[in-house]
Amino acid sequence: MAFWRSKKNDSSDESTAPETSSASSPATGEEASGGLFGKMKTGLQKTRRVLGTDIRDLFKAEGRLVDEDFLGELYARLIRTDMGAGPAGRIRDRVAKDFRGRVVHLEEVVETITQDIREQLKQDHGDLAKADSPPTVILVVGVNGSGKTTSIGKLSHHLVSQGHKIVLGAGDTFRAAAVEQLTIWSERIGCEIVTGPSGVDPASVAYQTTEKAVEIGADYAIIDTAGRLQTQGKLMQELEKIRRVIDKKLPGAPHEVLLVLDATAGQNAISQAKGFSNAAGCTGIILSKLDGSAKGGVVLPIREQFELPVKFVGLGEGIEDMTKFDPDTFAAALLEA
Ligand SMILES: Nc1nc2c(ncn2[C@@H]2O[C@H](COP(=O)(O)OP(=O)(O)OP(=O)(O)O)[C@@H](O)[C@H]2O)c(=O)[nH]1
Ligand SMILES: [Mg+2]
């Protein structure tokens, strides 16, 4: 599994937790040595505080009787991470089924919860799509400020560091600053970028980006778009047009339409996902800003309610602060001490 991380941690939260791998983490081999588990734990620190710490507080050293009181308290703590009633209820019911009437220790319950979260998060097609023959065209969409441009920077950096040739497309033509922002990323990464004059039809930039990718034999074209609300019909139609012209230039493209959801939006992210996945033909999710959120549990209802796999998670603003989403690592990182 791919992993990349900051050499220098940006947030103060991160600086307090070293990136160590754990013997009991599901990460193995290269991943463990790369510190995927530690990175995920650090990034999830705010959610961990709500979930892990609070659940630990339910227990005394001698254990705790699993009765209705306990199950109610457990449920309330699960809900605080924005995981929603469905997933929280399922975890509570599983703990009830396994342990009701018994005095249990923290570790047993944490193990069961971790296992349940892992199962709820299971997904197919978690890998980034790859075209049969290059270039793979990736369109990135989402509401204003969700983290689209930053996620493109991080993803591009990762792909370039794997030896791929990429072209960025500055499809957010509304604001000059947006083009500038992506241009800065392209300079940092050292890759090509296609831009158009301010206010130009974003579909034309998308077309030219695809064309450029074909022309220079790029492996990936990654196209940024302006933020929009899923309720803005006209702007959603604009995305449809962008997809159409890309397909015209390269039949079958875009191969991936990534929806960037801001984890700090919690349950609001769900309604965004609904609107976008219907209107924009999304194929996967990047869940950004998990480091800034205590609502990391929101990934459960996202997985519950959508066919869309969560492909990447953003764990900071730095160029390497993104990891591929892995349910096992995520579940363990949420709950392990
Ligand atoms: N902490 C943290 N901040 C992030 C992450 N991803 C993005 N950000 C920050 O969120 C803010 C918005 O990010 P952008 O990438 O500009 O978001 P956008 O969706 O492109 O915004 P618009 O183009 O205005 O719609 C910036 O300050 C980013 O640094 C993340 O994973 N963690
Ligand atoms: Mg942007």
Automatic annotation (TrEMBL):
It is an enzyme of class 3 (hydrolase). GO terms for molecular function: GTP binding; GTPase activity; signal recognition particle binding. Its main location: membrane. GO terms for biological process: cell division; protein targeting; SRP-dependent cotranslational protein targeting to membrane. It is a peripheral membrane protein. GTP binds at residues 142-149, 224-228, 288-291. Coiled coil: none annotated. It catalyses: GTP + H2O = GDP + phosphate + H(+). Residues 1-39 are annotated as: Disordered. Residues 309-322 form the SRP54-type proteins GTP-binding domain. Its EC number is 3.6.5.4. Keywords: Cell cycle, Cell division, Cell inner membrane, Cell membrane, Cytoplasm, GTP-binding, Hydrolase, Membrane, Nucleotide-binding, Receptor. GO terms for cellular component: cytoplasm; plasma membrane. It is found in: Cell inner membrane; Cytoplasm; Cell membrane. It comes from the Bacteria. NCBIfam families: ftsY (TIGR00064). Involved in targeting and insertion of nascent membrane proteins into the cytoplasmic membrane. Acts as a receptor for the complex formed by the signal recognition particle (SRP) and the ribosome-nascent chain (RNC). Part of the signal recognition particle protein translocation system, which is composed of SRP and FtsY. This is Signal recognition particle receptor FtsY. It comes from Rhodopirellula baltica (strain DSM 10527 / NCIMB 13988 / SH1).
